[in-house]
Structures are given as structure tokens and as C-alpha cells.
Write a structure and sequence with these properties.
The structure is a single chain. This protein is an alpha+beta fold. Helix content is about 15%, strand content about 40%. The chain has three helices and ten strands, in the order αβαββββββββαβ. It has helices at about 1-15, 35-40, 155-170, and strands spanning about 20, 40-45, 55-65, 70-75, 85-95, 105-110, 115-125, 130-135, 140-150, 180. It has an eight-stranded antiparallel barrel with strand order 2-3-4-5-6-7-8-9. It is globular.
Amino acid sequence: MSAVYLLLLLLPVISAQTFHWGPCPTPNVQSNFTLEWYMGEWYEIEKLPDIIGRGVCIKENYTLGGDGIIQVLYSQVWDPQNYKDKRWFLEETAVVMDPQEPAKLGVNLLSFLPYMPYWVLSTDYTNYAIAYSCKDVFGAFHFDFAWILARTPSLPPLLVQSAKQLLTSQGIGISKMTPTDQSCKH
């Protein structure tokens, strides 16, 4: 009976995520990833749904500290009818989880929670990036997240399509992927 209660409690969270049966896929990450080149501002172009990113004009700014800790400033506008730069900000930290695979980052929203995977699958550093995260729950099911990011508020449709093809080729479902409205004054 407790499993039913747990499922009912998790239902609002599950409905805001992309849920799948079985363990997380293990996509390939960017080879020869250079962390310093990834730093700076990224605009969210498309994503799989997540509980935090429900606003518009979502962007992230990555800054590498001298201690190797990456500061991530995430922001979005909550009210799509009021684009007067009333932004909501969230500060996160990120670290390289394994120096042998620097494209596999861990992101931490709250200091008492474990790091969540944030893997850079592909980037050219100046135009686009494709990132992926997945949380496995006892190998029985998982929640995954995917983002197509750009250095500017838009990407050419062919590049977005190529990014989606890469995600699909790595076993990541994109049927729930949605575009992010970037029409605010940035």
C-alpha cells in the first residue's frame, strides 16, 4: 500500500518530467571536450519537459571558478504576458565528475542533494550545444531531460533537426520535446 501512496505523492513531479521504464540510456558525450570554451551564456531552444523550466526566455550562464567549481546562473521569465525582464533566477553549481570525461558534469541545485548528471553530447562552443541528464530509479524507471542550446536566442531549423537526430540516435526519446519561447527582450 505504501508504494501506491508514494506514487500518488510523486505524480505531480512525474507529470512534469519525461518518464520511461527501465534504466537510463548511456549516450556518447562530446570527445575532446574543452570546459573553458563551454563557459558563457546559452539560450534554451528546445527541451524535454522539466519541473523548473516552465517559463519563457530561459537561459543559463556558466562561469568557471578558480577552484574548478562552475557557477551556473539559470534564469527565466515566468509571466509570458509580461516581458518586462521580470526574471526569476536560480543559482546552481556544477563540477566535472570524472577528469577523464570532462563532458560529464554534475549539477547541484541544493547543497544537501547529490549532483545530477549533465552530459554535453555535442557542441561547437560558438553556436549550439546538446545536453542530456537522466536520473535512474533502482533500474526500474528513469526521468530524463534533454536540451538544445544556442549562443543566440534562435538556431536555424536544420541545426535543431540535426540535434534531434543526434538525441534519437543515442536512444533518447524526443517525442515530448518542446520549443522554448525566446521572444523576450534579452
